[in-house]
Write a structure and sequence with these properties.
Length: 97
Amino acid sequence: MCMTAAIEVLVVDVERGGIRAEDALGFVSDPSCGGITLFVGRVRDHSQGRQVNAVLYDMFEPLTLKVLEVAAHEAQVQWGPPASSSPTRVDTLGSAT
């Protein structure tokens, strides 16, 4: 368990536009912690035999924020990280190239 920080920081946010992996990694970086999990999704160029040009991510924001907050809190209770960042994106993801 990473227990170096006296105050735990929990950030749950909805981004309109891109999420920079470097920013997320920098926020949760702690030399006393051994692991960081980061999911980076891409738009693939096909689905079910058809060409894909873009993917639209949409959500009901109040419910999304509540679910992300609960998940981040449960992770902190179980593993005790000093910081957690859970941004999610609402936007059209561009070309699959």
